[in-house]
Amino acid sequence: MWSAGGWPLLIVFIVLVVLAIGGASRLLLIADPAISAVVSLSIAYGAFYLHRNEILVQLGYQKQVILVWALSVVGSWAFTAAILQLARGEQAPS
């Protein structure tokens, strides 16, 4: 991208990336640990891979991160519900 615009476009790209990462890092102040986890993973993938890949590849990585996060949240919710149900002495649904 920046090769067509030379140094001025490279500097603009660097400033925009730094501002985007800085703005996204403000999302880490969210108190919910599940949201904070997906935000931190998304920022890490975005910061590392943004300048290395095309946008479609980057979106594919982000989609994978969000899908794994969603499955983890649903799995932990189901596991916690089953443990609490067993702790109360109820029969687990089959």
Which keywords apply here?
about 90 residues, mainly alpha
**Global outline:** elongated
What count of helical segments does DSSP give? Answer: 3
Q: What separation lies between the terminal Cα atoms?
A: 55 Å
What is the number of strand segments? 0
Model description:
Helix 1 packs antiparallel against helix 2 (33-49) and helix 2 packs antiparallel against helix 3 (55-87). The chain has one domain. The N and C termini lie far apart (55 Å). Helices cover 74% and strands 0% of the residues. The chain has 94 residues and is mostly helical.
Q: Topology, please?
A:
Elements: H1 6-25, H2 33-49, H3 55-87
Write a short abstract of this structure.
The chain is mostly helical and 94 residues long. The chain has helices spanning 6-25, 33-49, 55-87. Helix 2 (33-49) packs antiparallel against helix 3.
